[in-house]
Amino acid sequence: MESGPGPSPPPGGNVGAAPGPNAVKDSKYPTRVLLVVTAVALLVNYVETMVIPGVPVIQKDFATTATIASWITSAFLIVGSAVAPLFGRLGDNYGKKRMVLVSLVFYTFGVGIAGFSPSIYFLLFARAVQGVGFAIVPLGLAIITDTFPRDKIAGAQGIISGTFAIGAAAGLIIGSEVVQDLGWQYAFHSAFVLSIVLFVIVLKVIRKDVPRAKHKVDFLGAGILMSGVTLLLIYATEGPSLGWLNSEEIAFLLPGIFLSLFFFYFETKVAEPLIRLDLLRIRNVLVANLVGLVSGIVMFLLFFAIIYYAELPTPFGLTLGVVATGLTLAPATLAMLVAGPLAGRAVARFGPRPMLFVACISMGLGLTLFILNRATSLDLSLDLVFSLVGIVCIIIPIVNMISLSLPRETIGVGLGFNTMLRNLGGAIGPVVATAIMASYTSQVTAVVGGRTVETGHYLPNATAFDIVFGVGLVLTIVVVILSAAAKNYTFRDMAKPPAQPPTKPPA
Predict the structure, then answer these.
(1) Mean pLDDT across the stretch 185-193?
(2) DSSP codes, 172-217
């Protein structure tokens, strides 16, 4: 660890820099901002998880296919991932509060029209509009960076990260009841009302931030990046149904790879790029983005496999319903709510690298337990506590590393880019899990007239889930290796009062 009067900033970074433009003397203002940003993050995670139980019902109501219905969740993720860096840049240029309000307008409009969708394609359009509102999350984290003193940022980010799981679990449980008792439309109707309330609160509570300098927005570069990422995410989400080497899939994959790689070349040729590639040479920025990508794969690989395993019939899974699966997640979400703020404080005291190591130990232990001990829902709950606490304890240090290593005028786009990479990893995770589960299956049997007969229907077997969790363990080791390259910093000395010069004794 570094020693001296305070943490040394990485090259080009701002660790230990002066407070941001919103770090004002009003001691209660940061707390109000934290509550507002947390509420917005809760809304987004709550609504997006609430939609999941309604997908089969929506598919039935619109008489559509499972492939098309899957785009109810994919449309939001793809658009949200693609626009996050652009809105981050716009926030750096024109003010983060202004762009949060713009994002909320898109989100509110999207959920407002979604509940009145006359067709599945109209609903998919509404979900894509909602995806623009996903930029709220990285913009909110950037506002926290501007508002809090440097030694308090990690703790605030920890609280926000800890509440993500609460919103997701509440959405899964409450969403099941809403869809069952009122209909899927009311999942969107309720979100519309909440979005309007939060828009007013953001407008009244968060103060206008004044950007230090305005830069030309690289809309062409943003378009290239958004196109490339969108095509790659479409390939990832459609692969299980179309086939990974299907000609339609290749038509998404190859242009997606080309545009994504061409974006980095293009950014070296423009005067004011969307993402300054030289900033990726900052060690902690590069490490945080690579860890974000790999941990995103692990996180969604885990989510996909666990939900699938919980709901599969015995002996392949635990035969749990959607609500019971949500309740199985509840202890882990409560643990994340506690672990988030504690991890934030630990990052401030010990630095991000030790926290990343601790997070990997917790996540690795959880994945190991999934292989050895998953026979009951209680076992699953215990395994999830270790795994999800590990995941939230990874997110906090990498977000903090981005926030404190980049120049202040690029924090918004930096967090947006990191969010995009984590979501890209999140799209890859289910692909990996699906490929493994499709490769290791056993035939379902039934007892008819006292005889066991084969049904011709195949489901993922125990080996499939063992391999999925094993892959998660290998990727966790990759995160450990990447984390070892992080440059550590702490804030312990920043809180100490400066040494006073010795006073001369009276004559």
Answers:
(1) 89
(2) HHHHHHHHHHT-THHHHHHHHHHHHHHHHHHHHHSPPP--S-----
